[in-house]
């Protein structure tokens, strides 16, 4: 009776073949643009989220809790 044991070299070989012919398109996960552009877009998104959060808070908060520009 023959053994069906898979050794480490066989597993590594299968992994190498999968690297040559990947199952999916990984290019969609590669960052686009320079690091500076990506950081800029990130902070623009953060600003948009903060603006939305402040607007939601101001709509939900009673007048006594609402943020006032004069600090009172």
Keywords, please?
72 residues, elongated, mainly alpha
Explain this structure.
There is one protein chain. The chain is mainly alpha-helical. The protein has one domain (8-60). The chain is built from 2 helices and no strands. It has helices at 8-20, 35-60. The longest helix is centred in the middle third of the chain and has 26 residues, at 35-60. The chain starts with 7 loop residues before the first helix and ends in a 12-residue tail after the last helix.
Topology:
Blueprint: H1 8-20, H2 35-60
Number of strands: 0
Which structural class best describes the helix and strand composition? Answer: mainly alpha
Question: Whole-number average pLDDT?
Answer: 79
Biggest pleated-sheet summary? none
- Poorly predicted runs: none
Q: What overall geometry do the principal axes of the alpha carbons give?
A: elongated
> How large is the share of residues in beta strands?
under 5%
C-alpha end-to-end distance:
86 Å
Fraction of residues in H or I helices:
40-55%
How many domains?
A: 1
């Amino acid at each position: 009776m023959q053994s069906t044991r898979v050794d480490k070299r066989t597993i590594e070989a299968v992994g190498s073949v999968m690297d040559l012919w990947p199952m999916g398109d990984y290019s969609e996960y590669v960052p686009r643009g320079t690091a500076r552009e990506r950081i800029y877009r990130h902070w623009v998104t953060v600003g948009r989220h903060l603006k939305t959060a402040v607007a939601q808070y101001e709509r939900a908060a009673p007048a006594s809790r609402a943020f006032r520009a004069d600090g009172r």
